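[Q] Does anyone have a clean structure-token version of this?
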Amino acid sequence: MISKSIKAAVLCSIVLFASCKKDEKQSDNNEQSTAMSNNMLLQEWTGPYEGVPAFDRMKVDDIKDAILTGIELSLEDIDAIANSEEAPTFENTIVAMESSGKELDRVYTYYGIMSSNMSSPEFRDIRAELAPKLSDYSSKISQNKKLFERIKAVYDASQKNPLPADQQRVVDLTYKSFEMNGANLDEAKKKRYAEINKELSTLYTTFSSNVLHDEENYVTYLNEDQLGGLSESFIKSAAKIAKDKGQEGKYAITNTRSSMDPFLTYSTDRELRKQVWTNYYSRGDNGDEYDNNQLIADILKLRRERVELLGYDNYAQWRLQDRMAKTPENAMDLMMAVWPAAIARVEEEVQDMQTVANELGDNITIEPWDYRYYAEKVRKKKYDLDSDEVKQYLQLDKLTQALFYTAGRLFNYKFTPVEEGSVPVFHEDVKVWEVTDKDTGKHIGLWYLDPYAREGKRSGAWATTYRSYTSYEGETNVLASNNSNFVKPAPGEAVLVSWDDATTFFHEFGHALHFFSSNVKYPTLNGGVRDYTEFQSQLLERWLSTDEVINQFLVHNKTGEPIPASLVEKIKKASTFNQGFGTTEYLASALMDMKLHLADPENIDIDKFERETLAELNMPEELPMRHRTPHFGHVFSGEGYATAYYGYMWADVLTSDASEAFKEAPGGFYDADVAEKLVKYLFAPRNSMDPAEAYRLFRGRDAKIEALMRDRGFPVPTTK
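[A] Here you go.
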């Protein structure tokens, strides 16, 4: 999953480009503001590398005052722009907005870490209190009449006399954002629009807190006689986690994907598999005070009401107008073009698994908690491929070096570890590297890696930036991070990951490379179109399976021997194995996201809707959605992926098509000419040009779905 740049996060996490007219301040308020501005979280970053966040000094106790002061200072900036007596121009209106709110940007860096990486009950209480205040702040900007009049004046003038391309795109994006967020509404509708945003902000915060509660509190503890099938490294990690939780002598299976997935794949105890599976897929759906079903219903009603104020029929119609898909119908058409082949493949996979179960005399019918377990046995039978054997060659430190190698070959980047202690970090597990150009030595930025799961850290994997590249006020360097939830090993043990987790590691690093390669002038252009920004990272996954990476970095964690060619051949032959499962569990979530937002939300019963929709889709009973609705944080802990989860599939069409450009090139995946176009057209521009045009410049044509179907081993549709 990708986080936006800090400026975009401040403005977009609640409502894109929100803003406000400042009330007159009393002198005592000014004094208070001055005193509060001494808060460390507001201060300019100092130290090496053009200044870095003081993560080692951040305190939860400081965050509330820092956010409130940051809001106040940002609104002062906005007020000065809105009330300027000068005629509106690109410089005094648009550029001034780009430069506003820098104190709040800095605070939000710390806020993001406390929210995602280092959460605590104390912080969650503060976040819940701040959510409506941040929503108010957003509404004050998006509904600032004088500000919008100035933006509109610049926009109207640019329609007659176009600006340089990058300036024109900033103006167009800014104007469209305000328009989409109610700037043209009358006062009564603006008031209701702001009220809805405020209500939603509280619901989003509660939703994510509820999921985190269930992740932290539904832990399965095993005794020594319940470890059948589990690897030695997994057992040692589980023992350490249990000890850390005060359960020494036991083994902890935490309620996260990184713990659940390998347990369901290898545990021979079927009842325990069912328990772990149920804990994971019931997050937010346990009928208690942390249940999210009613929250989701409330969110859907408010989202529908809000877009109806703007004249749209439903939320999906409003959201997709500025995405590559443009309409929900286009997104649905793509998903439904793939869905029949996906569920047909699941039926084949289940038959294969049932055959194996019968041959073993297990006397069971395949259930969802059996899928991974028997799929692994089918993999061994069909391809003589043991996932645990492959895992022995997938060491996290070696994979990190593989990332650097790939970045060096494609982007000409060099990664050098910084001296420990020279750059502040928020946890001892976080490591930092300097990124430079291999030829010139030019400093590009810093890369932070936070690899391990821990209490208070949200599940999954994601990338974010603490500072993005811009040049409108002088060139800035990039501070980017990758965050994972690998199970921390016992002391002295290597971190071994699955092939899927290694793929995700490359994926998220793709986002980081997207940040580092940016050459945009203005902050707004560092944003992205959701069904396009996943493309670059999905494309980078392909380099994990290149011969250059396999031959250099996949070595056995005990012997140091390179992965045998015979095992590599098995991996490649099995590349389309279990695509029914992978595609169906993802698409089910993406379809559910879209259908929920197209449905009438009045009196909607979320649990019933989920069941009936899956039945209508002929969803196989043997597997669940990747993200069941009650814990679908992509969609209901904010709006970043709402009606946009389909974007991974949209981006995967681009990915499959683009990868064929490399396959066709003389130098393969490391072809210098294709790599140059990759960086020039697909990574460096960020959102400074239309994504469809950028892809055409790279490929010479639009992407075709046939490549995706070939990649997944599905029947390729006949072209009419």
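[Q] Thanks! Anything notable?
[A] The first strand starts at residue 220 and ends at 222.
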